[in-house]
Amino acid sequence: MPNLYFCQPHAQNQGMLRAVISLADCTRLVEPSLAIYVGDDFPQVYVQNGQTSDFAVLGISADEATAEWRRGYYRFDADLTELNAQLLTLSR
Prior knowledge:
Helices cover 18% and strands 28% of the residues. It is of the alpha+beta class.
């Protein structure tokens, strides 16, 4: 199942695993067209140029990849508090 990470550059963290979700839930949380594919490597969270906006990352493994979600990592801007609230509403 895809992994969802919360990234907070101002905290200089490397990304925190927040949830393991289904592909259907990925689409409920973010439109695939709004997620930026960044490749096979986890994106750099802390950048020296002063980036401070929070964002989220979806990680899709090769065995989970589809035409809509290919293998690798996707970055998308998000209000992490709001995204967390959306996570709590997903069916288990």
